[in-house]
Amino acid sequence: MHVSAERQRVITGAVSQVNAHLDALSAQFVSRRALLELVMLGLISREHVLLIGPPGTGKSAAVQAIAASVDAVSFEYLIGRFTEPSELFGALDLAALKDGQVKPVTQGMLPEADIAFLDEIFLGSTAILNSLLKILNERTYRRGQYSMKTPLISCVAASNAMPEDTLLAAFADRFLLTMFVDPVGEHELPELLRSGWAAAGQPAPIAPIGKAVIAELHEAALAIDLSGVHEAYAHIVRKIRLTGVTLSDRKIVKGQKLIAAAALLRGATAAGPEDLWPITYLVQSKAQQEEARETLAAELKHSFNPVLADSLGHATYGPTAHAAHLADQATALLESRPALVTDPLHEIWLVRLETMLTRIDAAFDAKNLPQQLRAIRGSLETVLEAHSNGATAKDAAPEAVSAETA
């Protein structure tokens, strides 16, 4: 489909706005850019996201931040064993009930929300989950004879673990994207501590992104040409299914929306092999996601996306994605250099530089080092060598003075 120059300018501006928005949000959370990207991908695709991980990994805080940063109506609730449907969908309108009408008061409740965040989703009762199914699948809320269309763009749900109950697993399948959230890695602990302490104060306000921008990108994604990837996508689905992963027909058809959105955010009008990586998030088992990344290493090795780089990196073991991720981390680390050499944090910073250098060398040998990492690796070595030479000179000075004194 031909896109006019003016239309393309609008789309490009919207993509840039989303990228800047993700940058601002991720600055408040250590190692959670991928999660934020995936929620944004869900919003643009108008699909639902499931986050699985232990308590205290920042799932709720990150989702709350992105929901608050979109100029849309949001609804949030922590579901418990004894949560009543009225707590999510609204209590009955007593005035209407006197007239013999069953009508809930939905103002401020889930049926009127653009974005919903439901924590501990699998603790919901059968009545809650049945009503949610209708909203998730058809964007319709029904109670008895009462029915209304809901404006829901995306529902983000969270839980500590995937359910073992087959009925709950069938409900979970309605969430197209699934991410398993782990605690922050050891090499990022110092940054987590600094960020956490800074967050104890008032976090910097983030200009909200308009709901219209999300809608614009959704419409543009629906116009992406997918004809060039249908065969490759089908091959990947077949390959994953051979490993024992269950992917429903509904899920793989809807998965095309993620591929289209990825291509759009890459700046393309047609999807290519580099946009197939979201398929990893269709898999709803942590072990099977890991296996899918290994199984699809060849098919996804050329994956690329400048806006969704972190979620792409989580989805594939491809060298291009891995190199881009390491390059971004190394660049940020070099830019965080303490102003004074005498600052106690300077020694910690040097240790982190050494760790980053080790990570790069472990991932790529010298002959296969991607160009984007070569220069950055050289910068790391230069800083560490300069420090080593400076330390050697300082160590030698006292010995020279002692010799002269003697």
UniProtKB/TrEMBL annotation:
EC numbers for this chain: 3.6.3.-
CDD domains per record: AAA
AAA+ ATPase domain: residues covered: 45-185
EC class: hydrolase
Domain of life the protein comes from: Bacteria
Keyword field: Hydrolase
A Pfam family it matches: bpMoxR
Secretion signal span: none
GO terms, molecular function: hydrolase activity
Protein's recorded name: MoxR-like ATPase
Species per Swiss-Prot/TrEMBL record: Sphingomonas kyeonggiensis
Lineage summary: Bacteria, Pseudomonadati, Pseudomonadota, Alphaproteobacteria, Sphingomonadales
